[in-house]
Amino acid sequence: MSRLGDLIRLERTRQGLTHKQVARKCGVSDKYLMEVEAGTRIIADDQARRILKSMGMTEHSEADFTLDDIAATVDLQSAVPQLAKAAEKKKAAKAEKEAPAAQSDPGVAGSIWLDALSGVLKHVPVYNAVMKEVGHRLLPITNGKIEGASPDKVFYFMAPDNDLRGFRVQRGDLVLVVPAQAAVDGAIMLLQTAQGRVLRKVKRVNDYQAMLQKYDEAFESEIKNFNELTFVGRCVRLEAEL
After folding, report:
1. Rg for the chain (alpha carbons), in Å?
2. Against a cut of 0.90, is the pTM above it?
3. Smaller CB count within 10 Å for the chain: N or C?
């Protein structure tokens, strides 16, 4: 399955072009184009860019989402119908509202597919222990949410130590955090403390206390009252480098 082929098919479908029309524009055979879209022919990024540019997509439209980002993150085969429908709606709205601008700048119409992709992709920031942004990850948005939370509220936290090594979280690993202001029994959670933000596994003891667990070389725990704790979020995904 070729995700770059899906991108080409999405843009061609959005513009209402036939295989033969696109093939003529970019100097390839329509059979070659059909094989690329079907995923039976491997295509390099530079060739995909040339085909997309021949349909009006300009380089500046890739400023936020590169072909590499998209191909590595999204299953466009399943997303194409949804994106095509969203792109058509955006195209119609823009054509009615910004007709003069579209006529003077051919790159505007060519970037409609990117507007559609921005509705299903999100640059999620990566923060270190002092909450300084050190990178990002591109994640898909499903039904307007990421892991059930608002896309603007989720972030990755880089584990600052090996306090949870016994729970498979080591220094430098990334955990995806979604907002949670209350203890979630059995979850690894991010807490705000006087010393900074820390990761702990949480076990509810009763209605007003929780046990905070860590496990480096030995298992350790402490019981705290809920009114002493500030929960930032629940960790729902782990990314580690081998």
Report:
1. 23
2. no
3. C
